[in-house]
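Lecture 7, part 2: worked example. A protein chain together with NAP.
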Amino acid sequence: MTTTRTAIVTGAARGIGAATALRLARDGLRVAVLDLSEEAADVTAQAVRDAGGEAVAVGADVADEDAVAAAVARVADTLGAPTVLVNNAGILRDNLLFRMSTSDFDDVLRVHLRGAFLMSRAVQAYQVEARWGRVVNLSSTSALGNRGQANYAAAKAGMQGFTKTLAIELGQFGVTVNAVAPGFIQTEMTRAVADRVGVPFEELLAHEATQVPVRRVGQPEDIAAAVAFFVSEEASFVSGQVLYVAGGPRA
Ligand code: NAP
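Predicted complex, written out as structure tokens:
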């Protein structure tokens, strides 16, 4: 008999998180679609339900300790113990170092790192009790360094150290912890980059595609597929890894 697992995907109202929620539901998991706006999250949750899956929308800021505790408890009540967590919520506040404000630095670390920490700490209680669990963290090729992203690169490199440490601590409880590091993916996040630098999005996509060995930009589903592998039952001996999904060694 196979157990129906419950997953929480953060930042899942759109983009990579939404594709991941849909993919995990297709793989048979119940999915909590968590995002800042519950209304926006419900668009994804409805798409999951329309596809025959089971989903709830939960509004919460991943960096707010009380909101995280309440959200995770609500998921446990409505969908069952959450034993799968995808830390996907993220923001960009790009600028060159000399122009980067302290709040732009703090905000990025707050959402990515503090958010992943609070969510993982809340969910691990259910994972340890179940003696089974999966955590997948979203890193980025920017972890290797990217102009204008001192805050984001630090956060995404931080996600890798966080991933490896949780893998060491939680392995004995049957919990694996891995990271997916995407290259350039076509989402609202990268559209905002085009807007900021004043280039039409289509032009940016075409340019980025020429930089990628497989000659295309990534789609949210490319990342969802990698997350789904780490979440799968058969990936139980894969932990503490960072998988670059970038159409080449880096994008
Ligand atoms: P996206 O389209 O901007 O979606 C991110 C989602 O996260 C949004 O729905 C956003 O909500 C939500 N969010 C932001 N702050 C939050 C918070 N404090 N609590 C809860 N939800 C929050 O981004 P994406 O492109 O799909 O990226 C998803 C993840 O992949 C991020 O971690 C990103 O850093 C990473 N990544 C993306 C790329 C890429 O090329 N797109 C590359 C490498 C890594 P609001 O809309 O309300 O702000």
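Residues 10-11, 13-17, 35-37, 61-63, 88-91, 111, 115, 138, 140, 182, 184-185, 187-190 surround NAP (CB under 6 Å). The chain has two domains: 4-182+218-243, 183-216. Keep this in mind for problem set question 3.
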